[in-house]
Amino acid sequence: MSAVLPGSEPFEASGGPLGVLVLHGFTGSPQSLRSLAESLARAGHTVALPLLPGHGTSVEDLMTTDWSSWSAAAFAAFDRLAAHTERVAVVGLSMGGGLVAAVAEQRPVAGCVFINPLVKPPAPELLTGLDELLAAGVDRIDGIGSDIKRPGAAEAAYAQTPLACARSLFTGIADVYERLGDITAPSLLLTSREDHVVSGDNSDDLAARVAGPVERVWLEDSYHVATLDHDAALVEELVTAFVGRLASHE
Question: Which parts of the chain register pLDDT below 50?
Fold first, then answer.
């Protein structure tokens, strides 16, 4: 395992009886959510922002992991928080949103925050094309990081996307998608009006399928990585207020 890249380190903070698990996206790192996690910690919550396996180091490390690695890490982080807090809310960006859904389908979460979540498998023709590339020996393509509208902002993400990992992600998300109706906790859903990584129908389907109440807010001035974009302050305000309401109802 390579050394963790500067700025990609995990973050934890001890606080009150509500725990908040924060999960980053595919090929990304905690850097994209650190400011949000710190905001939640300042609000008095116990916060964990883990570095998912294979992330924040090198693409070669990521290529030794798959959906089972990332989801197992998310469940383990939730269980650790739940062991020393009264309840746990889960927050995720992109693939992190898919992991939020996976956790909420199988654990008693206090609430969910989805930021441009990936919860829906792509069209069959895309999967076919992906399989053809893999069969032809293509193991990676250009990266998907830093889809950010704000000039000068950058995400600490890999410059390349390993295709076998992407295929595993889509297989895992297909299972999550089928169980979205098992989510009964209240959710905050933040969707960028323009997103070049995850299509908006992911958020549409999530809002339609989950069983719990959904508060949906459109982000008008950000692309995919909204937590680093023009709407970052708004995202922090909305998420902190939502989690604060969860804490007040304990």
Answer: none
Select which of 195, 203, 222, 229 is catalytic.
Answer: 195
Q: Which of 8, 29, 71, 94 is catalytic?
A: 94
- Look up 84 and say whether it is catalytic: no
pLDDT reported for residue 248: 86
Is 94 among the residues known to form the active site?
Answer: yes
Domains of the chain: 11-248 (3.40.50.1820)
- Mean pLDDT for the chain? 96
Q: Which of 24, 224, 229, 231 is catalytic?
A: 224
Active site residue 195: yes
Give, rounded to a whole angstrom, the gap between the first and last alpha carbons of the chain: 40
Provide the pLDDT for residue 95.
98
Give pLDDT tens digits for 45-72.
999 999 999 999 999 999 999 999 999 9
